[in-house]
Amino acid sequence: MKNLIVYLLLCLFTVSCGSKKEYEPVNENASLPESFDFNAMNLKVVTSSINHKKQTMMTLYGNDSAIDELKDHPENDNHKERILALITWSQKEDPYWYGAKIPNHLLSVEIVKSKEPFSENSEILYQKYEGKELRKANADGRDRIRTIQSMKPSIMP
C-alpha cells in the first residue's frame, strides 16, 4: 500500500510539472510598433468600448485639449492642437482569468487632428493605419470623424 501511495504522488508530481504555461508579461500581438512612436503624442485614455458582434475592443486616447472639448469644457486657448486616436484590436480569451477577454491582434489606429476646436468649419485631418505594421490606409474619414468625436469620455475620479 505504501508503494502505491508513493507511486501516485510521483505520477502527480510529474504531470503537474510538465503542463505549466510560461507567463507572457507583454502582449506582443496587441502592442503598437515602436516605429509608430505613439508615446510621443502624450495622450491619455478617454474611453473604451467592446463590440461583441465583431469581437473587437477599442480604446480612444486624446490630448488635454481634445478631452476638454469632448467634455464640453473647451480651453480658452483655441490655437492648441487637438488629437484623438482610436485603437482597435481583435479579442482573445485571457489565459489567466476565466471568462475575461484581452486584446489579441492590432487591427487599426485612427487619428483625428485639428488646430482649432472641432466643428464643421474647422480643418480636421483624418489618418488611418491598419495591420500589425500600421500601414497607412486610404480612407474617407468624414463618417469616422463624427463617430470618434461623438464618443463620450469615461467619468474618472
Please outline the helices and strands.
Blueprint: H1 2-18, E1 44-51, E2 56-62, H2 64-70, E3 82-93, E4 101-114, E5 124-130, E6 135-137, H3 142-149
Antiparallel strand pairs: 1-2, 2-3, 3-4, 4-5, 5-6
Distance between the termini: 62 Å
Residue-averaged pLDDT? 84
Q: Which sheet architecture does the biggest sheet show?
A: 6 strands, antiparallel
**Strand line-up of the largest beta sheet:** 1-2-3-4-5-6
Helical run tally: 3
Number of strands: 6
Beta-strand percentage range = 25-35%
Overall spatial form: elongated
Order of helices and strands: HEEHEEEEH
Helix vs. strand class: alpha+beta
Characterise this structure:
This protein is an alpha+beta fold and about 160 residues long. About 20% of the residues lie in helices and about 30% in strands. It is elongated.
